[in-house]
Design brief:
Layout lengths: L2 E6 L7 H14 L7 H13 L29 E6 L4 H14 L3 E4 L4 E3 L19
Antiparallel strand pairs: 1-2, 1-3, 3-4
C-alpha cells in the first residue's frame, strides 16, 4: 500500500472538515484542462531530488520513492496526486511538504488527515467572502 498525498492550489477554507469535503467535491467536478505551471514546477523540484521511477535504471528501481510513474501524469489541472513508498515516507514527506508549501500549494495528507498549508495561507490563500475581509 502506498502513502497518498493530494496537492492543490488555494483557496482552501480554514475549517479542515470543510476543506476535505471541498477537495473531494472539486475532484469529482474537475474536467480536463491544462496542468498549471506551478504543478509542473512542483514535479520538477521533487524529481530533482527523488527521480521518477521511470527515469531509474533497472538496478535502481527498488530505490525509487514514488509508487508509480511517469510522475508528470499525476499532475492534473486541479490536483496532483502522489504516492510514496511506505518505507521512504519519513524521508520524502517533509521535503514534499516544504517544496509544495514554498510554491504556495496545499498538501492534503490522507493518512494523517492533515492539511499542510503554505505560510501565506494565514493572510491570502483562504476562501473568504469579500464582505468579511474587514470583519
Amino acid at each position: 500500500m502506498s502513502y497518498i498525498v493530494m496537492i492543490t492550489q488555494g483557496p482552501v477554507v480554514r475549517d479542515d472538515r470543510r476543506a476535505w469535503e471541498n477537495l473531494e467535491e472539486s475532484i469529482e467536478k474537475a474536467t480536463e484542462g491544462d496542468v498549471p505551471i506551478v504543478h509542473s514546477q512542483l514535479i520538477d523540484r521533487l524529481t530533482a531530488k527523488f527521480p521518477c521511477i521511470c527515469d531509474l535504471d533497472d538496478d535502481q528501481f527498488d530505490d525509487g520513492v514514488w509508487t508509480d510513474g511517469p510522475l508528470r501524469n499525476n499532475a492534473g489541472h486541479f490536483v496532483t496526486v502522489l504516492g510514496i513508498v511506505p518505507q521512504r515516507v519519513d524521508e520524502v514527506l517533509p521535503f514534499l511538504i516544504e517544496v509544495s508549501n514554498g510554491l504556495g500549494l496545499f498538501v492534503f495528507d490522507q493518512q494523517s488527515a492533515r492539511i499542510h498549508r503554505p505560510a501565506i495561507a494565514g493572510k491570502f490563500a483562504f476562501a473568504r467572502a469579500w464582505w468579511k475581509f474587514w470583519a
